[in-house]
Amino acid sequence: MDIISQLQEQVNTIAALAFNTFGTLQRDAPPVRLSPNYPEPPPVPTPAEDSPNVSDQPKLMSAALVKAAKQFDVLVAALPLSEGGEEAQLKRIAELQAENDAVGQELQKQLEAAEKELKQVQELFGQAADNCLNLKKPD
Predict the structure, then answer these.
(1) Which residue has the higher pLDDT, 3 or 138?
(2) Taking Cα atoms as reference points, which of 61, 72, 71 lies closest to residue 16?
(3) What is the dihedral of CA 15, 18, 19, 21, to 10 degrees?
């Protein structure tokens, strides 16, 4: 897999981890009174002894998020450095565009020649078919 695909995959991983982390924090957060105008929030039920420890979950999820971000940084550091700055890049883009245009024109010429040859072959095939039909004697 190329470096750009790896970066895209890592961004997707970070987004999924962030989504799940925020969702877990929202789900497990205790209720808070927003204003004195609102009634007291219901008390938080005490977790049963056999239930998983929810206080460890945010720590584990945030550690996974940090690890994914560090992996992203490693991938970014592995990207090749641009040489010569913006001017050199723009010059290279112009060169590639000119080369692309030249190749496109050559392909267009080849396509036109192929279409012309196809038309000739179709005409010859039609003539050959007509000749074959003319050779048969009617019954």
Answers:
(1) 3
(2) 61
(3) 160
Q: Is the dihedral of CA 21, 23, 28, 32 positive or negative?
A: positive
Residue 68's CB is within 10 A of a number of other CB atoms, namely 19
Check: CB of residue 41 under 8 Å from CB of residue 88.
no
- Residue ranges in 1-139 assigned as alpha helix (H): 3-28, 56-77, 85-135
The single residue listed with the structure tokens 């609102």 is 38
Q: How far is 139 from 33, CA to CA, in rounded Å?
A: 102
For residue range 19-66, list pLDDT tens digits in order. Answer: 998 988 888 888 887 888 888 877 776 665 555 666 788 888 989 999
Instruction: Note the pTM of the prediction, 2 decimals.
Output: 0.52
CB crowding 74-104: b at 16 or more within 10 Å, else e: ebeeeeeeeeeeeeeeeeeeeeeeeeeeeee
